[in-house]
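During the no-cost extension, the postdoctoral fellow (Dr. R.K.) reprocessed legacy sequence entries with the updated structure-token encoder. One reprocessed record is reproduced below for audit purposes.
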Amino acid sequence: MTDQTDISLVIPLLDESESLIELHSWIKRVMDENDFSYEVVFIDDGSKDDSWSIIEGLRAIDPSVKGIKFQRNYGKSAALQCGFEVCKGSVVITMDADLQDSPDEIPELYRMIMQDDYDVVSGWKKKRYDPITKTIPTKLYNWAARRITGIYLHDFNCGLKAYKLAVVKSIEVYGDMHRYIPPLAKYAGFTNIGEKVVQHQARKYGRSKFGLNRFLNGPLDLMTVAFMGKFGKKPMHFFGAMGLLMFVIGFGFAVYLGIDKLFIEKTGRLIADRTEFYIALTAMIIGSQFFLAGFIAEMIGRSSATRNQYLIEKQLGTNDLEN
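Re-encoded structure tokens follow.
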């Protein structure tokens, strides 16, 4: 194996003992046929079956296999982040351990990163073997994600993706953000994002580990990613603008009521008896709350260790920065 590893495979798993040996054999065959130097990083996300024992056995016969075992189930995002922190291949490829992602896609994904110079290549399972209860919500979710992020991928949630090493070292995946790694990469400055139609295998063993909560968590995480990407470093630009708009609306109603009472209908209804009074009061209160939320967010941001975080791609004549 050369000093520079060609490919790092990052594979999170939960109770996939039945598929691991077959998956490893498939990966090894593809790598050997293409003469790739590689590492396979299995992240056991708190499995209760024999998954870890099998990983230990694979490590004993193949030094390219690496394993990380979590004390309990932390979720796919945590597993991917942990794998990203330890991997070292020029191209990092993520895939699921349930045999639904085909390792035969690896050579072309590698070529698209290395030769076509994509930062990220996302798989598109154009023909899926999932029930209709999953495919219809997935289509709606992907449509919303395209509209909000401006990244025109057909399948944001496909586990089979390829990245330049710099991409995975520049982003942080947490919560359920594994669905939104392409937007995270875009907001980190990696804008050359491509897509490849990949083969979707029918599940051979076990069952899906994702429940109905993904249909609620997915849209909420999408809004979080979109907001953090645009306003994460400048929250006052969002909350302040919203607050100012609401306050101006409320203040405008208040001025109108004052002028009307003083000069037009002097003997008319009391201001407190008019609907416009409560609209004005509510709008100004909400506007003030938005403004205070932005102010507090800015204060928290100024206390953050990453408030001025930036990525340097190249340097010339600035060695003093390294001292």
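The mean pLDDT is 84. The chain has two domains: 7-231, 235-302. The remaining legacy entries will be reprocessed before the final report is submitted.
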